[in-house]
Amino acid sequence: MIEQIVVAGGCFWGMEELFRAQVGVVDTEVGYTGGSNDHPTYEHHPGHAEALRISYDPSQTTLATLLDYFFRIHDPTTVNRQGNDVGESYRSAIFYADDVQQDAATQAIGRAQPRWDGAIVTSLEPLTQFYSAEEYHQDYLQKHPGGYTCHYERTFVSDM
């Protein structure tokens, strides 16, 4: 059975590109969640985060593994910012669907905090509705390999 988790950590293009290559990830979809309007668009999504819905096979990976990776590919210590992208749309957040996901997210923050100099500001927000982004945003960096991204895998001293 395939499971899903929704995360946000800056521009959704870069996160999607990195997550798609992870073992056990069977699908990714960029979209908007956590905001104040129904059917948000790129031009109008007040309060919504640019988010990534990750579908994964739990027989091949775990939620903990995916959340640990999430904290490796973006800076969770910056409020409403990743790289040059600034604003609430670019906040670091985990949108949990149930208590199990909320607990896993809390534990992942605890595991990640010692690796970062600043306090992790990732918000934990209940997932209410995920709205798929426009088609031109889906698989964007597959369509435009030289496109913008501020995401990359970090190596921490504790990894060595």
Automatic annotation (TrEMBL):
It catalyses: L-methionyl-[protein] + [thioredoxin]-disulfide + H2O = L-methionyl-(S)-S-oxide-[protein] + [thioredoxin]-dithiol; [thioredoxin]-disulfide + L-methionine + H2O = L-methionine (S)-S-oxide + [thioredoxin]-dithiol. One of its GO terms (molecular function) is L-methionine:thioredoxin-disulfide S-oxidoreductase activity. SUPFAM superfamilies: Peptide methionine sulfoxide reductase. Coiled coil: none annotated. The keyword Oxidoreductase applies. The active site is at residue 11. It holds the Pfam family PMSR. Keywords: Oxidoreductase. InterPro entries: Met_Sox_Rdtase_MsrA_dom, Met_Sox_Rdtase_MsrA_sf. Residues 4-150 form the Peptide methionine sulphoxide reductase MsrA domain. Its EC number is 1.8.4.11. It comes from the Bacteria. Has an important function as a repair enzyme for proteins that have been inactivated by oxidation. Catalyzes the reversible oxidation-reduction of methionine sulfoxide in proteins to methionine. Belongs to the MsrA Met sulfoxide reductase family. This is Peptide methionine sulfoxide reductase MsrA. It comes from Candidatus Saccharimonas aalborgensis.
